[in-house]
Structures
1.
Amino acid sequence: MNEIIKWIFIIFAAFLLIVMFQVIGLGLVILFLIIYLIYRLNKKDVINTNKNTILPEPIHNEPVLTQTTPAHKQSESNPVSPANSNNNIITFHTLGENISLFGYTIVDPLIYTSKNTSNDSSYPFVIYLTSKPDFSGNDSYELGYWPRFSRLTNLQKGMYIKWLVNGKKDPIDIGYVFIYYYGLEHRAFVEQKDQKVILFELIRLYNIYSENFSFSNYSGNFISYLILKIDNFTPDETDFLIQFITTLPRDYRNIPISDLLYKLTKGTYMLSQSVLPSILEKLFDSDYQLNLGKRQRELFTYYVEKEIEVLNLPELYTETDTSFTYNHASPYSFIVRPVQYKSLTPVSEIKATYQSCKGKWKRGFQNITIRKIDSSNDALTDVEKCAYLSSNLRFNGINPNKEFFDAKIQNNSVMEIRALQEFFAFPENEKLTLRQSEFLVDCCESLGYKIEPSAYLVKRAYKSTDKVILFTSTHKDNLKNNNFIIPSLWFDLGYKVALEDDFLEDGEVKLIQKTLKTNFKLSLMEKERLEKRGELYSITKQVNISGFADIIKSAEPESINLISTYLISVAAIDNTITIEEQKLLEKVFKQLSLPSEYLTKCLNELQQDRDVVTIQLGSGKPKLGSIIPRPIEESYQPKEFKIDPAKLAFVLGDTAKVQMSLNEIFAEESSGFVVIETEELEETVIGVIETQEAEIPAIFFSQLIQKDTWSSEELKNIFKPYHLMLNNAVEMVNEWTDNTYGEYLLEEECGIFRINKDFAEQLVELGVES
């Protein structure tokens, strides 16, 4: 305190005391006390002014990691002090110098020190030389938020000093790293010096400690700010920064990766490598309604990228002026001015494609689990991505493996499942699971090939030795349409009997085709599938009917009798059943677990009329002592005989009954199978198909827009008169609106179907309702 001011204050105080107090003695005592107090304060200031700080001599030097960046001179600064601090001179020790602290040598320190005594308003990052760190052990206590060096215990201060000495790279509580980090912030933002040195030091720290969310978030944004701020990078530094940026994880960090690359490369960086994904990341980060898990985000990003690639846009982005703001981590306040830079903004076509893909994604991937076929945590392959997208969305992307696959099956469309497992890198199992089998179908579909028999349609897992046929088709397909299961079973049973002698007659094929045509209304795609399956069977001479036995065994006796008659009709193509054909039928019946009495009964019923012999029992009584003969057991002995065509046609005329019976069995096995309720099957199915192609979607639309939400039961009642199951009808409506107007009408969420209100209102305005 200035001496003149002190004595003026003393004289003024004495005058007031004399005037205010009548008793002079009391005034003099008080005056004496005031003078003595000021005297003691003045003495303390003099002691502090003359006090010298003596640093301890170095004990030893330890080798540390030395950086190769050119050295800078030590600098002293009088920075903007923290609040309530009157005197806080600090010294920064920069790259290239060695300093000794408490007997240890620190190389390339990038730290602040001070000779003053710390207090509550001290900088959190400054190492005070009056401290007494303890190097005798470790303190496992976590520092918590906003740590300060001045508040550390002596043992914790010793740990921090040793961490600095060892190159700032050892595992340690993240609070110690943040104390060091606060100093880097102060140097770069408050003093605005050594920004490039600090940038590369931050990258080094990020590579070591980025597993901590808080540190990775702050440091990632600090790095971004400095890259956008600094303009004088060398070519080597630029290459290093590009490599670092492109390896950053794209998840929770709001790092403008595309803008950083654009700034570093002056816009010459290859768009296909990073700019498109980065632009999409900007859309993701600003879309708070899109909440995707890791696998879903991985697949969705790929989906949008491929949809954009198809557009073949001349430009992906426009250049706009924007700013980047950094929120500092330090517990004391200072101002960081935003940095201005050129930003990449997606063109309108990309934004529109993103929104369209998001809508289709929500509908196509409702409650679908995405995982690798081998259940590992590795990234999805292009094959897996394309398979998921092709099976759930109308995907326009080009599969990068298509050219290789085309060459593989160019001259051989019939393949073993084992070959497909190898190509698609499936697990080398002798038997696949049903999920793996269906995913194998999706993989083939993603390459433009249909597979027959399809695991989706036959509901049966593949074995590695199974053979399938691959083909291309222009007809629309629905792999989840279970109406195909019954005719498919009928087809396989017929071919199984026809091929038991390893020879396929034209008459047998025509009979199977006629039976299917008469009793089932098949789409063009379903007809093509059965045609290709027939080609496969004629080549391999093998028909897999595993699983059929359990289904048929559960049918009603009348249906089993009809199935038996159908099998006999295929064998009796020339209206004659030979002994050899009867033996083949016995073999098939055994494989299907059909009782042998059904074969005997059906053969007897279908024979042409035979002479009837009536046997009358005798009325005489047996004589005493006579041996009572055993009853004669009736046995069926194979022999060649003729089939009555009229009887055969009559029995086969009830095929609709067996179809209904089998439908009921399938419905019990899986609630997804379709149950067709009909009295005259052919008439009903034909009516449904014709209405599907013409009027049903529009009729449904006028009913559906009457409410915003529908339950599953309500929709089933709407679709029931048209003999359509819920899933098939919903898909039909959405496909119609998407093909015609480019959007889906119905969206399902937990069993509740919601109407796309905005889209419905647009259609009403267009007069679609009428």
Note: The mean pLDDT is 74.
2.
Amino acid sequence: MKLSLNWLKDYVDLSGIDIKELWYRFTMSTAEVEEVEFVGQDIQNVVVAKVLSVVPHPESKKLKITQVDSGDGILQIVCGAPNVTEGILVPLAKMGGSVKNMPKLGKVKLVGVESFGMLCSAKELGISDDHGGLLVLEGDYAPGTDIKSIIDIDDVIIEIDNKSLTNRPDLWGHYGIAREIAAIYGRELKPMQLDDLKSAEDKPKLDISVEDTEKCFRYSGLKIDGVKKLETSMNMKVRLFYCGMRPISPLVDLTNYLMLEMGQPMHAFDSRQVESGIIVRATKEPTLFKTLDGTERKLPEDVLLICNREKPVAIAGIMGGENSEVLEDTTSILLESANFEGSSTRKSSTKIGLRTEASARYEKMLDPNMTVTAIQRFVKLLKDMQPDIQFASALTDVYCSKLEPIDITITKPYIDKYIGNTLTKERMVDILRALEFKVDVEGDTFNIKVPTFRATKDITMKVDIIEEITRIFGYDNIQPQTLDIALKPLQYNEERLTDHKIKELLSERFGASEVNSYIWYDNTFNSRMGIETDGQVKVLNPQAQDANTLRDSMVPGMLAFAEKNEKSYEDFLLFEIGSVFRAASPKDKCEQHKNLCILAASKVKSEDELFYDLKGIITFIAKALKNANLDFSVCTGGLNWVHPMKSVDISTNGTPMGYISVVHPMIKKNIAKKLNIAVLEINRDVLQAIDTGVIKYKEPSRFPEVVLDYSFLVDNGVTFDRVNEDIGSFKSDLLNGFSFVTIYTGKGLPEGKKSMTFRFVIGSAEKTLSSDDINAFAGSLIDYMNSVGYALR
């Protein structure tokens, strides 16, 4: 992201500050500055000149000979610009002066005619890419006036690494950066000039409807009439160009200027195209839509759109539509200032293959409380261009998900524990208030309100407050001290080693991600999801009443992680090893042990696939750690998130260990309708207590084995364990092993039957099996299976 120092000076006084030292301190405290470029210094001895006469060049069709008033005399200039005409004011680079990417100017002959300087385009001044003609200066300027007194050509352009701003959506505009600099140097942040919009209060409201409130948090709109032919000021064009944006038209320039100044994207619709009203909704099926750049794009399902009553007019948070763009004859606009959910904007942008300056900012989770302020600022700048604009509507604000400031309480001793007794209480408060945190001081306790522009994804806990204080104070100002800690040998802990092995297997072999949650229930989340818990261990003096019960299951916490991640990922596998607490009643003694909980979620895989994934994972873990086989039986638990049909209990040698279940449909729909979820929860202490089975080794045969798959018809009421046990009772010298392959319950089976397929591996240590040997084995197996009630399918 590029910044203009001139722009920052509108909001913070930088006098007396060394520019290079400023950006070093900014890098150390806030975000990485990649480059500092001093622009305009190569433009020298350029003044305003008035063209007095223009005649054709006798030897060239393209060139013209002009006489110009330079303020200190009349000069002859040979010029090839197509728009040079008598009477205009233009920049003149005098002899001895210099322009962009050219050597110092002197007297030259052009096709035999002497020229004593150069008339300049905007590109030659380094303030635009436009080289189509001379820069015509609007206004009454005296010839000889230094061009830099009219246009802010001299500037310092700072480029900041975007990656270092990912968690700071408030810094994606000049005003947020100015706030940081003001805090770093203890200077006043000047207020932004806004319009109060009072003359719009008696106007009718706009018809705005937000259907998808999960993707659109807020939508503010204002209709403005009487917009005449506007002209973007030269200095606004220069600032846009220096910051990497191309001036297009006055209204578009204004929205871009606001985005670069405040970080809030805006859009101006031609009111004629949205007269029927605004509807914010997501696509329900693939849709063709032509964007402002003239490209027709195929929008997939679930992309948020801005629509009138008949058709889409913009892709929310990404780009407007060609069918609603502001035209030359536009006199009425509907101004949009909205806030869209970050991850849905990023996913839509990726699916469409279109990433814009607007989407890059919405992805960062902007402050929804900024939308109305942005409209007030836009109107102020528009009135500077045209004072007589008229409001055709009242400010209409649909606020779907209100963001409130975050309250954090912290004490000075707690801060001192991290940074030492380096700062006074007053200095800490001054730093926080400079960053626009509201601070009430009660003794050594700070009651802090975090502003909403820092509360979307940045400041959430005490350590964040400590970081704010220390980074503004300066990390290099904190005196490092060696910790006084006694060194002790590491004690062998078998339980910790088991936990490490489990985590290693889950992360490296199965690609699972470890999460860490609090040991108490979030009662608000559980109530919202319909999750019923029976925790009996209560917390004395809890920080919040919705966190007053210690968990007796880890699944509700894992489901909270599922809700947070489903908007960002198509599928994910999460796990946690943590403590649970159980007691017969709140007055009884508490029993504490560790559980392993794994959650598998996907929008691609079915519930059955997720269920069997978890069954395979826990089977592998038991085999890898303990060389043990687990038993699976019909689930008998009464937890309300357990599926009544798609669940099993896990045990080992008769000792209950846990369960696997698809999440109950009533709870799943509250989390995400399209997300399939399965959970596994076992007592890690039971797994730890299993005696490790002796690993037996068998010399492999020198002769090839034969693999045979057979499908048997089994009564629907017969369990897998029963069939597995019956097959295990079959004896044959050739049988080296068997395994389950699949189950089928579809069409083509006799009523009341299911088909179960098993794979048999046979071989001999003495010879290669002949077809007679194989047929004899098959015949004896089939006869045996018939005898125990399973017919070959």
Note: The chain is about 25% helix and 30% strand.
